[in-house]
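Sequence in, structure out.
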Amino acid sequence: MTAGAYPPGTVRALLASDLVTPGTRAVLLARLDAPPAPGPLALDAAAFAILRAVCARLVPQPERPAPIDLAGAIDGRLARGEGKGWRFATMPPDAEAYRRGLHGVDACARATFGVPFVVLVGRDQDDVLGAVQRGAVSGAEWDGLPPERFFEELLAEVVECYYSHPLAQEEIGYAGFADAHGWQAIGLDRLAPHEPRERPAEAPPSPP
């Protein structure tokens, strides 16, 4: 257990209590128990594979035996046609923006390194994503699709998908969803009885 870690199982314990409203419980349990997406619903197979690789660089999860399926969450939203109710005037509709932008990422990888994005090592993938973030890319994929804005929107959604998942909330000790009875401990450095407490850091092992 690393410093600042919270006990595992706290989210499921809270979801099983009356501290969570039925609607919130249903949504979070669906996220918690959802299997990884078997394949794309809105994106083509190539774009979906690129999205998986991009998500792995933007929010690495090497410590998780089963990483949170960020690409599946985004692709599922696109397939359902859900959105924020608005978009930047310079951006095409979400599904088109993702398809074109992800293929644009791949085109940048091929132009820079001569291979697809998904086969690059991590540092080279970071270089490609950095070029997109700076707008230092070209090609037909980016006509009418500002790369800087695409990267900004992509990064925001990947992080949002991660921290809306109960397991990610558990790792930072978040219990804000358990609000059925309101909050009384609202002062600085005060925790409600059901809010998780950080576990003390373990001392490093002694040298041999």
